[in-house]
Structures are given as C-alpha cells and as structure tokens.
Amino acid sequence: MPMSDLSSILWRERGLLDLLLFRLEVERLVLSSGRSWWLTIAAQEIESVLAEMRHVELLRAVSVEELAAEENLHANPSLREIAECSPEPWRAIWLDHRDAFTELTSQISELSLDNRRLLATGRGDAPVLRDGSLT
Questions:
Q1: CA distance 59 to 13
Q2: What is the pTM of this model?
Q3: What distance in Å separates the CA atoms of residue 115 and residue 126, rounded to the nearest whole number?
Q4: Are 60 and 13 spatial neighbours (Cβ–Cβ below 8 Å)?
Q5: φ and ψ of 134, to 5 deg
Q6: Secondary structure class of 1 (helix, strand, coil)
Q7: Mean pLDDT of 67-87
Q8: More confident site: 126 or 66
Q9: How far apart are CA 53 and CA 17, in angstroms?
Q10: Ordered structural domains, the chain, with CATH
Q11: What's the rounded Cα separation, in Å, for the pair 9 and 91?
C-alpha cells in the first residue's frame, strides 16, 4: 500500500517539523534570556531533529518513487502532482500534507532567521541579511 505508507511517512515528517519549530522556539527563548550557557544544548537538540529529518526524507523519497511507479507517474512527483491523479480521500490528504508543510517551513524559516538575528546582535556582529546570512 504505497499511499498509506507515504501518508505515514508524511505524518512522521510533519511531527518532526513541529518538533523542530518547538526547539527553535526554545533556542529563541534562550537567546532572548541571555542565558548563553544553554545554547549548546539547544543547538544539539536542533541538530538531532535535523538528523532524524534527513533519515525520514530518504524514506519519503523511496516511498514517493514506489507510489509513482505504481500510479504510472514520472519520477519524483510533487505532492500536488500526486494529489491531482489520486482519488478521494487521498487527494485531500495529499493537499493537506502539502499545505501543512508549506506553513511549517515558512514558520521555521522565519524563526530561524530571527534566531540568527538575535545571535548576531548578542555577539555584536554585523546584522543578518534577509536571506539569513551574516554580513
């Protein structure tokens, strides 16, 4: 059942994105508090989520390829492409996952950028650019 396998993996990935968002929020609170001794632990927790996400992304890629082969789709289809050729309720499920990923990644990007700004400000470094890089 490639569809239910993929959905399970996507739920797992969404959970990890939620956890990453939480850990970035904890990092922001640590940065804001000035308690820099907790930064190492906060960074390690973020890294552990990112490592798990890399593993789940690999599982997702394999599952998407299996589904694409079964449904006669081109290699590496997007969730939107999978949804377009899927019957209900799968169509709604894929679009829900896609919308959730879009929202979560936007929140993560924004919070990550804010954390970099706080870190740069705390170190007295140059400001962070809009793309997240330090000047």
A1: 10
A2: 0.86
A3: 14
A4: yes
A5: -90, 145
A6: coil
A7: 95
A8: 66
A9: 8
A10: 2-123 (1.20.58)
A11: 16
Token pair recorded at residue 56 = 């789940």
Instruction: Give SS3 for 109.
Output: helix
Residue 122: band (very low, low, confident or very high) from pLDDT cuts 50, 70, 90: confident
pLDDT number for residue 130: 54
What proportions of the chain, in percent to the nearest 5, are helix, strand and coil?
80, 0, 20
Contact status, residue 79 vs residue 73, Cβ threshold 8 Å? no
Cβ pair 67, 78 in contact under 8 A: no
Helix (H) or strand (E) holding 37: none
Mean pLDDT of the chain: 91
Q: Which residue has the tokens 């820099």?
A: 36
Amino acid at 46: I
- Angle among Cα 80, 83, 84 to the nearest 5 degrees reads 90
Task: Tell me the two tokens of residue 77.
Answer: 């289809």
Helix (H, G, I), strand (E, B) or coil at 47: helix
